[in-house]
Design goal:
With 154 residues, the protein is mainly α. The chain has three helices and no strands. Helix 2 packs antiparallel against helix 3. The longest helix is centred in the C-terminal third of the chain and has 99 residues. The chain is rod-shaped and about 150 Å long.
Length: 154
């Protein structure tokens, strides 16, 4: 009945244990009430002088017992439903936050990779700019040298 991944969570264990204890306590209380001797319970009689419980009072007592059993079962059903709803909600929240955490880690890894790629591209651009500048300076120097050589030669 317990799901292994949910029961690894200490809060879920406490919640489940608390629900189980409340259910056991309710069952014990109803069992004690139903098992108590007739003398311990107030007797409903049509005639206060009469020592035995009349048939009508016995029917009322049985109806009250049946009602209390039905009420207890209703409460237990509601309690079980609420406990299961809380467990589902806890599992849903846990899955949501695990998913968000995983997505954030993936995004951080993607950002790190992108930053490395951009740094590499910047390095390549700097190298290309350096080579272009070097070639431009060399071409200009060759142009100036050729002009001085022509001037000296004439």
């Amino acid at each position: 009945m317990e799901e292994p991944e949910l029961m690894d969570n200490p809060q879920a264990k406490k919640l489940s244990e608390a629900g189980r204890k409340v259910g056991e306590h309710l069952r014990e209380q109803v069992d004690l009430l139903l098992a108590s001797p007739q003398g311990d319970r107030p007797r409903v009689t049509d005639d206060p002088q009469e020592g035995d419980e009349p048939q009508g009072a016995r029917g009322v007592n049985e109806a009250a017992q049946n009602f209390s059993k039905a009420l207890m079962n209703s409460y237990l059903t509601i309690m079980d439903y609420n406990l299961k709803a809380q467990q589902r909600s806890m599992r849903l929240n846990q899955n949501f936050f695990e998913s968000v955490t995983k997505d954030l880690r993936n995004q951080a890894e993607s950002n790190r990779t992108l930053a490395q790629d951009l740094a590499h591209q910047a390095q390549r651009q700097q190298e290309a700019y350096r080579k272009l500048s070097e070639e431009s300076i060399n071409a200009y120097m060759n142009f100036l040298n050729s002009m001085f050589s022509y001037y000296r030669g004439s």
